[in-house]
Specification:
Helix content: 40-55%
Distance between the termini: 28 Å
Strand order of the largest sheet: 8-4-10-9
Order of helices and strands: HHEEHHHHHHEEHHHHEEEHHHEHEEEHE
Radius of gyration: 27 Å
Number of helices: 17
Oligomer: single chain
Low-confidence stretches: 1-28
Shape: flat
Amino acid sequence: MKIKNILLLAIASFLGIAYAVAAIDNSAEEVAWVIGDQPIWKSEIEEAYQQMLYEKTPINGDPYCVIPEQLAIEKLYLHQAELDTIEASESMIMQQVEQYINNYIAQLGSQEKVEQMFNKPMPAIRETLHDMISTRSRVQQVQRSLVENVKATPSDVRRYFNRLSEDSIPYVPRTVEVQILTAAPAVPREEIENVKARLRDYSDRVTRGESDFSTLAILYSEDPASAARGGELGFAGRATFVPEFTAVAFNLNDPKKVSKIVETEYGYHIIQLIEKRGDRVNVRHILLRPRVSEKDLTEAVVRLDSLRSDLETNKIPFEEAVAVLSQDKDTRNNRGVMVNSNMQSDNYNTSRFEMADLPQEIARQVDTMQPGDISQAFIMKDPKTNQDIVALVKLTNRIEGHRANLSDDYQLIKNMCEQQQQNDILNKWLEKKIAETYTRIEDGWRNCEFKHKGWIKTASR
């Protein structure tokens, strides 16, 4: 049983959105199922259904069969978590709660609009989010404990692949492997001083009461995600920020004061405290990034284009040039090899990229290149800092779109094999748990083709 559907239902059951609540009258407060000593209310099912419709989540079957079964499965996992004394990390829960809240505010525009959307005050939203995230974490921990020893051998992978029907073999889109060498021209001292002067001016205006920090952040901050919220970053722990920012943010004590100027890899900041809660802090900031001059960027392009001639003739191996000249420490320490950081990609944490996973500037370069080709120098935005840098890329491998095979896609097939093994283990565990657990399904909720056997058998009175 994959965790995804359970999580969607956990979120859906949490979201007491006004339109869903309005659709449920008092008669909905009736029990539909009982799992052990835990009821599943009709209102829970209705709210989950309304939310899934709102989010256009596919429901494979009758929702009044699928949804209560999924909620029942969640309760079985939670019961096991109780037996195993599995708890969720409180600091992790609170951090994720604030991430959810910040995302909602970013999407809707203000805290007041979030409260209107959920028809709840912010403390109640935080409390229900807390419960939802705790449940999710405990379910995941139980599932991980059940499948932690699953590891497919090469013979397992071969047998699994050979049993796949033609239609079950996934199509793998075109992927590429790329090396990169970057140069970041130095920012002129005059530009840095200009940025600092602007930040000092903003700080003085706030201190004198002439301007609101949040208004200045909306108008001038170059961190677009937080600027829309008046620079607010939301409650976070020390590990959330880079060390230089953390050192200042966590030493602020007076919400009326503005910090000194803080330099980080992203640029220059001023920070204002909003609130402290134990080991977490909520601050707002204004970020300004000093700009590299067009002249310096042009000169860097010329230098790298000159280097390209030596690289193409292998007078200097690309890896050696990266080790000596490249200014991006992550790729420099990896012989220039780029690693896919898109957690939603099947190629996450590997050297393979679908074209959509690459920064646009790099994708444009490698689109027409052949393996072994080195691009001309080009200007791009640094994905981490958003600063202009100059780069050369080498296309080391291109794998055209194809049906998956063992020689090119062993890791993908291995993951599929292990996923099936994990699902088999979880399904067997669930069948045993269902058989052992008292279950009662009320009239009107039984006429279903459930995914798992045993619900009706244990429901007899």
